[in-house]
Amino acid sequence: MKNLYNTKKAKDLDDLELRVYTSRLLGANSDLVLHGGGNTSVKIGATLYVKGSGWDLATIEKEGFSPVKTIELIKLLDYERLSDSDMVKYQREALVEKDAPNPSIEAILHALIPYKFVDHTHADAIVTISNSNRGEELIKELYSDYLIVPYVMPGFLLSKMVYNMTELIDWDSIKGIILHNHGIFTFSNSAKESYDNMIDAVNVANKFIRESKKKKEHDLSKIKELISKAKGYDVVMRVNQSATAKRFATKEDMALTQKGVLTPEHIIRTKRVPIVFEEDYEKELERYIQDYTEYFERHTTGEEIMLNPAPNWAVLKDFGTVSFGKDEKEAKVIEDINNHTMKAMIDAKRFGGYKSISEQDSFYMEYWELEQMKLKNR
Ligand SMILES: [Zn+2]
To answer: How remote is the CA of residue 33 from the centroid of ligand 1, in Å?
Structure first.
């Protein structure tokens, strides 16, 4: 989101004119406010000029700001509760000009914030993150220098909650307020800084969303080369980007891939677990081979000879899966097994999660003579 503040244009403006100027900048951007949403204010002397009901930030004029006595609004915070009609009535009584429009329903909150300029928007990017299942965790991570307020009904209840939460804080230690499921407040004694902080804060969320969309690229020829080398022959690869394979390759479901086979006889085709390729394929393959070797050593009676430790299939993070075979037929068998296994693993979540046979039992099966013969006679 572009910062549209033009220092030249703002140069000779007085406080109320500046308030009109940056309010319009905010209002012009539908990713910040829509159709009359959001509100702004400026404190001049003992008077708070706060957006009047019915005005739109995009087109607001000086007359669109209702002048109220700041102190009278702050006094309302002494009430434990205040009905909407009483709040509107008291806010009107605090007006300096009696024919001004009704002050915004957030006027008390504007009065409470101890800075000259206060900006409030419903920035899409911020509420997008907040309105997600990981919203609480992500907002906390992204806005560590903001006061974060849980959702509460706008109006008196919100003002009262912020009042209680800020009683003991040093306002200079926060850059603004994030209202969960609602929007954001920024503030400063400078109109420009309050506007700048708004744009910067929204861009933090924009950047986070943009980066989460970046599709993961994988170098399939590099993977083919590495696996072929480890296997000792040129593998045929089958790439699977079905919805299930893609889901399996997400951060949330990737751990499932390491939970073992669906039925014992699959193990000679797929091995117990696939490799996960994320970033450094060489290191990841090295690690897989080492883990496989340790698995063999943990369970061998000394009679068995270790099979080739390279994986038979791979999960490519944020991409899908790939099966490796000596030929197309073998790769297809592995892919078919994987498709059924992945579906089972995901469905089993509803029954407390997927659980396969033990590692020991897997080993017996993988190195069972009768099973090994099947492969040879194929
Ligand atoms: Zn709002």
So the answer is: 9
Q: How far is the CA of 18 from the centre of ligand 1 (A)?
A: 21
Class of domain 220-377: alpha beta
Q: Residues for the chain: how many in total? A: 378
Give the tokens for residue 226: 């590495």
Give CATH superfamily name and number for 7-213.
Class II aldolase/adducin N-terminal domain (3.40.225.10)
Query: What's the one-letter identity of residue 255?
Result: A
173 CA from centroid of ligand 1 (Å): 23
> Which pLDDT tens digits describe the chain residue by residue (378 residues)?
999 999 999 999 999 999 999 999 999 988 998 887 899 999 999 999 999 999 999 999 999 999 999 999 999 999 999 998 999 999 999 999 989 999 999 999 999 999 999 999 999 999 999 999 989 999 999 999 999 999 999 999 999 999 999 998 999 999 999 999 999 999 999 999 999 999 999 999 999 898 877 666 899 999 999 999 999 999 999 999 888 898 889 888 888 889 998 888 888 899 999 999 998 999 999 999 999 999 999 999 988 889 999 999 999 998 999 999 999 999 999 999 999 999 999 899 889 989 999 999 999 989 987 666 766 654
Cα-to-centroid distance, 10 and ligand 1 (Å): 26
Instruction: Report the alpha-carbon angle 368-371-375, nearest 5.
Output: 135
From the CA of 181, how far away is ligand 1's center (Å)?
10
Compute the distance between CA of residue 51 and CA of residue 57 in angstroms, rounded to an integer.
Answer: 8
Q: Output the CA 172–ligand 1 centroid distance in Å.
A: 22
